[in-house]
């Protein structure tokens, strides 16, 4: 299991920006991703960064969010611009080793999870 420590988040008005960071230690982080969840809904994939160089985005955030990885510190970042009220959620960092091909949105790809961090966007 990888230890994942999340930071960033908070509250912002619609149209504003926030940045999330997640630092991993103690295991493979070949696959790293951000998921989000609101009460009563399934946890959904937001964006992912694989060590192969591939990045993935949910349609709802493409063009507004940018995922990147600082290899020197093993930190996954999520720059969130033009935030909307529907982006309000608890955001979770996830990580996993390379393995069988599964959709990047599959929780099966990520055995390690962070504790979650709140993002609130007011309209």
**Major β-sheet, in short?**
7 strands, mixed
Secondary-structure element string: EEEEEEEEEEE
From the N-terminal CA to the C-terminal CA, the straight-line distance is 38 Å
Q: If you compute it from the alpha carbons, what radius of gyration comes out, rounded to the nearest whole angstrom?
A: 13 Å
What class would the helix/strand composition place it in? Answer: mainly beta
Proportion of beta-strand residues = over 45%
Total count of helical runs of at least 4 residues: 0
Mean pLDDT: 96
Extract low-pLDDT stretches. none
Number of strands: 11
Query: What is the percent of helical residues?
Result: under 10%
Shape: globular
Describe this structure in words.
With 123 residues, this protein is mainly β. The protein is built from no helices and 11 strands. The chain has strands spanning 3-8, 10-13, 18-25, 31-37, 44-50, 55-57, 65-70, 75-80, 89-96, 112-113, 117-122. Strands 2, 4, 5, 6, 9, 10 and 11 form a 7-stranded mixed β-sheet that branches. Strands 1-3-8-7 form a 4-stranded antiparallel β-sheet, with no helix packed on it. It is globular. The N and C termini lie far apart (38 Å). The mean pLDDT is 96.
């Amino acid at each position: 299991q990888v230890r994942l420590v999340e930071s960033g988040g908070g509250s912002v008005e619609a149209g504003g920006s926030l940045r999330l960071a997640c630092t991993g230690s103690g295991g493979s982080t070949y696959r790293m991703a951000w998921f989000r969840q609101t009460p009563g809904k399934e946890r959904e994939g937001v964006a992912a960064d694989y060590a192969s160089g591939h990045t993935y985005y949910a349609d709802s955030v493409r063009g507004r969010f940018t995922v990147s990885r600082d290899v020197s510190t093993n930190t996954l970042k999520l720059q969130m611009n033009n935030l909307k009220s529907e982006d309000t959620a608890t955001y979770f960092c996830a990580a996993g080793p390379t393995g069988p091909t599964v959709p990047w949105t599959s929780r099966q790809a990520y055995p390690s999870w962070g504790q979650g961090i709140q993002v609130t966007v007011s309209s």
